[in-house]
Hints:
Layout: E1 4-7, H1 16-20, H2 28-42, E2 48-51, H3 60-69, E3 73-77, H4 87-93, E4 97-99, E5 103-105, E6 109-111, E7 125-128, E8 141-143, E9 154-155, H5 156-168
Parallel strand pairs: 1-2, 2-3, 3-4, 6-7, 7-8
Antiparallel strand pairs: 1-9, 5-6
Helix pairs in contact: 3-4
Amino acid sequence: MPDVFFISDHHFGHQNIIDYESRPFTNVDEMNERMIEQWNSIVGPKDKVFHLGDFSFLNQEKTKAIISRLHGYKFLIMGNHDRGRSRSWWIEAGFHEVSEYPIIYDHFYILSHEPMYMNKYMPMVNVHGHIHGQKYEGKQYINVSVEHWDYKPVSFEQLKELVVVSEEQ
């Protein structure tokens, strides 16, 4: 059975993100190549990856070239930097599915780009990106920005373990 993964905020082609987030790369080409390697090191061709936004700053041709190199079935939940382009632009670039809005996965996980307000009594977990190297307070939030996960997608199994650990505390 294929595995499911989550990740966000690659910012492919965005030179300034290297400085903004203290990414360990000397230039954007090195960053792009390393992030593709990291993705493909754990995602298989039949796996599914939910990308929670801010995928690429490149034009459609260059974005398509990157997406075509990434393993798996790719589902984009659009982030703030993706919204200048239409759903069809992203599908033409190579994503299999695209949502402009958050979605609920497995009846328990709210997948969104930006962290969503969750009161402490809400029985769900918000899997998000947007805030890069920062952490959102509360056990109901899991930040899947690339900076937290060595630029590798996070498996659904890893996410479920994080939820069990936080419930036990």
